[in-house]
Amino acid sequence: MIVTSAVRHAAAGTAAVLFVLPVPAATASPVTSVVPVTSAASAVSGLPGASAASDASGASRREPTQPVRHHVDPARLDRKGTQVQPLPGAPSVPSLSALSWVVADASSGEVLAARNAHRKLPPASTLKALFALTALPHHEPSEQHTVADSELTGIGDGSSLVGVKEGYTYKVSDLWNGVFLSSGNDAVHVLAAMNGGWESMSRQMQDKARSLGAMDTHVVSPDGYDAPGQVSSAYDLAVFGRAGLQDPEFTRYCSTRYADFPAGSWSYGIANTNRLLTGENGVARYPGLLGIKNGYTSNAGNTLISAARRGDRTLVVSVMNPQGGGGLAVYEEARELLDWGFEAVEQVQPVGSLLPAHTKAAAGADSRAVSVPREGAAAKAMAVGKAEAAAKAEAVGKAEAAGNAPRGGAEAAAVPGKDSAAGAAPSGASVGLPLALVGSACAAALALWARRRRSVDRVS
User: Fold this and answer.
1) Catalytic positions
2) What is the distance, to the nearest Å, from the Cα of residue 140 to the centroid of all Cα atoms in its chain?
3) Which whole number is the average pLDDT over 187-203?
4) Who has greater pLDDT, 364 or 415?
5) Closest listed residue to residue 27, CA positions, set 433, 436, 437
6) How far apart are CA 110 and CA 93, in angstroms?
7) Distance CA 81, CA 219 (A)
8) C-beta of residue 422 within 8 angstroms of C-beta of residue 26
9) What confidence score (pLDDT) does residue 396 get?
10) Considering only CA atoms, which of 453, 435, 423, 440 is closest in space to residue 13?
11) In the prediction, which pLDDT does 428 show?
């Protein structure tokens, strides 16, 4: 009889606890919660068969399929000669006289073809592209600066000049027009002085080149003037061109054909020296050209970085020191590379990439790394979903209880109604919680029964 009374109290306590607790929607293993992570990674990578990873039948799970990637030999661009991987029907690569050149997709960074891509050569004024990438962010275009005489010292003999004068005040945008259109070394000297001085600017440019993955470039003179040990490569110049296209200010300056340059109370017109952009001196304009930068010194010969857009495709090319055809050959050889690139873009496999090494590694690990942050996100989403589901279930349960509907059934139906992923895959903690409360209720009921029993004994 004593045992029966204890059991009756325990059962009553258990029933009271169970009455207010939600009914678990399922007793799935906690491992099931990993499935949405795999599915999310597959969906992001665009992988086929992603739904197979979340098969509710519990079939054996397979590793997600890796995205299809072109095989690129990382050492291929280090080889001498022309590097290209044509598919059947691809157009032939043009035969050019330049010592070094690169043609690449500006969006993906994939190198479509190259010749002696990492050969170190003097860059001439194409180095001004790296100067702009380094110095442009430091001053607003509308900022005004009065030129000091000391800022115009040390300009090399025979340098191209835009006409900057000491004591005159210029807007920063005027100075950048002088850099991009007239290739003015005087404008470069002034802007370098505004950014820490000549030596500091050289170090900043060197650091910028390394951060972009341009390892062939050694900066001695920020304006590109010939200096012992100053070199770059067609690969690095293409890297600078691609990076410049991602900066709207850089793109605006490098694609400007004509501008007015101030000279005190009046101004004079300056024209971009990139003939592919202006169509002057017997060179036809290239359709869709975005400009960038040309250069020439007696030691470097003619050099050029150009980019052009056709439809939704943008290409960047770099050409260094053509050996034939005169001073305009650099433009015509760049034209041939652009024409070939737009025709061959879907008919060749890449032979390299303009992306920095750390960016390439991150891109290669995308399908693996994506599961790490998304796992945490999925867990948080599941927890939020459960909390919201519980709140809704309680509201629905109260409403249905008023209509004599069973509370437990209302909650069981409401939980998966919020989020099927959260409702169908409760975690181990959520399933174990009711069991722990039931045990506590039983213990409390037994303690209450024992206390009443002692009171009865004392009365007797």
Assistant:
1) 125, 128, 183
2) 25
3) 97
4) 364
5) 433
6) 16
7) 26
8) no
9) 43
10) 440
11) 44
Neighbour count for residue 155 (Cβ, 10 Å) = 17
CA separation for the pair 180, 187 (Å, rounded): 10
CA dihedral 176→177→179→182, nearest 10 degrees, is -170
Give the Cα separation of 41 and 60 in Å (integer). Answer: 18
Alpha-carbon distances, residue 117 vs 135, 162, 331 (angstroms): 26, 32, 18
> What gap in Å lies between CA 159 and CA 155, rounded to an integer?
7
CA distance 286 to 284: 6
Q: What's the pLDDT score for residue 123? A: 98
Residue by residue, DSSP assigns 133-199 as HHHGGGS-TT-EEEPPGGGGTTPPTT-------TT-EEEHHHHHHHHHTS--HHHHHHHHHTTT-HH
As a 3-state breakdown, the chain gives helix, strand, coil percent values, each rounded to 5, of 50, 15, 35
What is the predicted pLDDT for the residue at 59?
42
Q: What is the mean pLDDT of the chain?
A: 76
Average pLDDT of the segment spanning 303-321: 97
- The structure tokens 């739904």 sit at 51
Instruction: Determine the pLDDT at residue 345.
Output: 85
User: What pLDDT, on the 0 to 100 scale, is given for residue 451?
Assistant: 65
pLDDT digits over 200-229, tens only? 999 999 999 999 999 999 999 999 999 999
Q: Which of 337, 431, 332 is nearest to 105 (CA)?
A: 337
Q: Which two tokens stand for residue 34?
A: 């990993």
Query: Token pair for residue 21?
Result: 């607790």
**CA 56/CA 108 separation, integer angstroms:** 38
Predicted pLDDT at 452: 62
Burial 170-186 (b: 16+ CB within 10 A, else e): bbbbbbbbbbbbbbbbb
- Looking at residue 326, what is its pLDDT? 87
State the pTM of this model: 0.65
CA–CA separation, 442 and 268 (whole Å): 95
Mean pLDDT of 152-168: 94
